[in-house]
Amino acid sequence: MRHRLLGRSGLRVSELFFGAMSFYENEGDAIGEYRAMLDAYAEAGGNVIDTASAYGQSEQILGELLAGRRDRFVLSSKYTISRDQTDPNAAGNHRKNLVSSLEQSLRRLRTDYLDLYWVHLWDRHTPIEETMRALDDAVRAGKILYVGISDAPAWLISRANTLAQWRDWTAFAAVQLPYNLLRRDAERELLPMAEALGLSVAAWGPLAGGVLSGKFSGGRRSVGDAAVATRVDAESLTEVDHTVAREVLAVAEELGVGAAQVALAWTRSRFAGVHPIVGARNVEQLTENLGAAGLVLSAEAVRRLSAAARFEVGFPGEFLAQCEANPWVFGQTTPTARAAEDTRG
Fold this sequence. Notes:
Layout lengths: L2 E3 L6 E3 L2 E3 L8 H16 L4 E3 L7 H8 L8 E6 L15 H15 L4 E6 L8 H13 L3 E7 L3 H14 L4 E7 L11 H8 L2 E5 L34 H17 L3 H12 L3 E5 L4 H8 L8 H10 L8 H8 L2 H4 L15
Parallel strand pairs: 3-4, 3-10, 4-5, 5-6, 6-7, 7-8, 8-9, 9-10
Antiparallel strand pairs: 1-2
Helix pairs in contact: 1-9, 2-3, 4-5, 7-8, 7-10
């Protein structure tokens, strides 16, 4: 598995991130399976582990499993979601919850620091200035090394990083968001923003809850998506969902690989900075998912898959693209290359 730089930092992160959301059974056989999964991920060259304070026993289990090898991994966790629903200050992105949540995560994970700390989602009631300054204080204290944000609008992330640049605070190095063939909303604003600002993208739910693995649309039953927060009801799937899933299966059969590998490879074909978060229930499923790291889809395969997943960028994206191609707007000469090459590798 190859490695890239996290955002505009020098931190090396693997192409595929490992989602530990499914680590919730803190007993015998389950612990052994979790340990085997981490071993398989590490042996494949993976080094990023994604968890959160809200993922049940995940942090506590990881703390046990990483004993003696914690520094070999880029360990990340998140805060925002309530730790105690009866306490109004036990949730949100304000300083008090950040400090309390971080200390709790460090204890559970049995570590003195986190490599990457995510804001779990946008809190409309906390000024972004407060969040960015509090995160920067934690970085300066050595308790976290890099920061990221999940599930937030592009304008907010852009504003946050602009404030950080002006005030010499730690800026977000990465953004986490849902992205797959059936959920391409990020292509409107979030992915272009990430590319422009040099942010890495951690894509959760890359298999759309297992839909893109083919388990609901015939073909060889493939890997489920253990990193998605909601379960999929087969009866709720639309004809478009099945059409896309069948196209994924068709491409997979032509290439002689699993459908999950094709779906994961597609997310990486759209933007070099995307890192799918892979999850699994056992080592066999994880191993199949990890096979996506070596799969490069042809331009024709990407076109077929994208065409099956009907998607409209909408305004202003489509309008601006039309303007750029129109000589009446920018003249006869259109730039053919960026001023600087992508430095993420």
